[in-house]
Design goal:
One of its GO terms (molecular function) is oxidoreductase activity. It comes from Pseudohoeflea suaedae. The protein is an alpha/beta fold. 30% of the residues lie in helices and 16% in strands. The strands form two sheets. It has a seven-stranded parallel β-sheet. The chain has a five-stranded parallel β-sheet with strand order 2-1-3-4-5, with helices on one face. Helix 1 links the parallel strand 1 and strand 2. The chain is elongated, with a radius of gyration of 21 Å.
Length: 317
């Protein structure tokens, strides 16, 4: 056994793939899936996604916890977490994948993709309304972190107007920014397509519900707004999304995340004609791209250098 080990805990993931990639960058350290005991002294770092409750709390020499995805709410579900730094994954690869998803879904709704697919299924030919230009459409991004800012920049290049809302006031090129509860109403009145990239916290849980949908504008070229949620499933109230679509408060929704995953086979979202379902695939973590940066952070921390992308535990992200 090596003097220091890295714990990998990602139930349901391809553990062998991640172990192989971590070992490439951390020669001399064992990558382990289970501890030798409740007080395993050899583990210095933990790399996790939805780790079991209590797994990390009794490791006496644990120095830091690394999330394998952009979100960290899965870590905080463990109520026994040790008092060590928690690191979010921020990588060009993960950011690019999310921006690809956002641009794909925005363009699909902007260019009537769902409608044309229904027409194709019905062998129906026809375009009955004029196509709006990108500069006639405003995309509102909820969450202006790394992922939101990059998505905004790419949407700007395509000609869309972009607004954004965040917990604290931001200054982002090409984006009209709103912040806090006092700016939320004006933000909801600003856009035609809403892209949600918020972290899941006590303040944001369930924010995508009827109260929010009723405050969104319905004066734009799309008629009613479009919802795209690629953030966290706990942000949305799925019964309210279905109700809003049926009432015309929303014209369509693209959902990549869900209250419970995988999405239950009896969920009405599967068959709803105005819903696009993707299986939490907007920005999948790529072991070959992420293992190296994770290990480099570990090495830097061992040298006494500060960790980057630290989670603010009081804020929850």
């Amino acid at each position: 056994m090596s003097a220091e080990r890295i714990l990998l805990s990602a139930p349901g993931w391809d553990s062998e793939l991640w172990i192989g990639e971590l070992e490439k960058h951390a020669p001399g350290r064992d990558i382990v899936l289970e501890t030798d005991g409740a007080t395993d002294p050899s583990i210095r770092f933990a790399v996790v996604w939805k780790q079991p409750e209590g797994l990390l709390s009794s490791l006496p020499n644990l120095k830091a916890i690394f999330s394998l995805g952009a979100g960290v709410d899965h870590i905080f579900k463990d109520t026994t977490l040790p008092d060590v730094p928690i690191v979010r994954i921020v990588s060009d690869d993960l950011t690019a994948r999310m921006s690809e998803y956002v641009v794909w879904q925005v363009l699909d709704h902007h260019r009537n993709g769902p409608r044309y697919r229904r027409q194709q299924q019905n062998h129906s030919w026809g375009e009955t309304r004029q196509q709006a230009s990108a500069d006639d459409v405003t995309v509102g991004i909820m969450g202006l972190g790394e992922l939101g800012r990059d998505s905004a920049a790419k949407l700007n290049v395509l000609g869309f107007k972009v607004t954004g809302w965040s917990r604290r006031q931001q200054d982002v090129d090409g984006v009209t920014c709103f912040a806090g509860p006092e700016g939320f109403g004006d933000f909801l009145a600003s856009a035609d397509i809403f892209v949600v990239l918020l972290p899941l916290t006590d303040e944001t849980r369930g924010i995508l519900g009827l109260e929010t949908f009723r405050r969104m504008t319905r004066r734009g070229p799309l008629g009613a707004p479009v919802l795209i949620n690629a953030g966290r499933g706990g942000l949305q109230v799925e019964a309210d999304i279905v109700a809003a679509l049926d009432e015309g408060l929303l014209s369509a929704a693209s959902l990549d995340v869900f209250e419970a995953e995988p999405l239950g086979k009896d969920s009405p979202l599967w068959e709803h004609p105005k819903v696009t379902v993707t299986p939490h695939a907007a920005a999948s973590s790529n072991a070959a791209r992420l293992a190296g940066p994770i290990v480099e952070q570990m090495k830097a921390y061992d040298r006494g250098e500060p960790l980057a992308n630290l989670v603010d535990k009081s804020a929850g992200y």
